[in-house]
Amino acid sequence: MSQTASTTPPEVFDGNRVKAKEYMRSFKCWWALNEEKTVFDNPYKRVTLYISYMKGPKVEDWAEAQQEFMNKRKSTGKLVTFESHWRDFEKAFKDTFTDIGEGFKAENDLKSLKMTSSNINSYIATFMKLLKMAGYEETEHGSLELFKKGLPAGLNI
């Protein structure tokens, strides 16, 4: 019997920073497909499940420390249903394993992005992707200026 998408967990995460974003995305898709299951509905268990798919010398110590931190929070009265367990863990994961070079590269690409064809939709999609990767918000003061800078002279008003 073959597995369906809802029963297929993410690949093991071994600490490779290049794959960190994909691992988080894959886990969140698995979670969305299985959100009715208790393990996903309970933030403490969700973090523990996430950690259980982290294996290898690059992540073992970090994963163990995160689990110990979660257990300590639980033992000091923090309810397992508090969503902050997941939010705090997700931030710690991103802070630790996100490829920081990706943001710098995206920022450089964003600054040099030019609309080279008449396809404005492609330019907008690329701009928005790079904006997010660089860590900018659409509403930030410089975002509109960067967007306009990449437009051809006739559109840059």
Range of helix content? 55-70%
What structural category do the secondary elements indicate?
A: mainly alpha
Strand content: under 5%
Biggest pleated-sheet summary = none
Number of domains: 2
Return the string of H and E elements.
HHHHHHHH
Radius of gyration: 20 Å
The coarse silhouette is elongated
In total, the number of strands is 0
Low-confidence blocks of residues = 1-5
**Amino-to-carboxy terminus distance:** 60 Å
What is the arithmetic mean of pLDDT? 87
Count up the helices: 8
Classify the oligomer. single chain
How does this structure look, described?
By secondary structure, the chain is mainly alpha-helical. It has 2 domains: 5-97, no CATH class; 100-149. The chain is 60% helix and 0% strand. It is built from 8 helices and no strands. The radius of gyration is 20 Å and the shape is elongated.
Report a brief summary of the structure:
By secondary structure, this protein is mainly alpha-helical. It contains eight helices and no strands.
Question: What is this structure's SSE topology?
Answer:
Blueprint: H1 20-33, H2 38-41, H3 43-52, H4 60-75, H5 84-97, H6 100-112, H7 120-133, H8 141-149
Pick out its properties.
disordered N terminus; 8 helices; mainly alpha; 157 residues; 2 domains
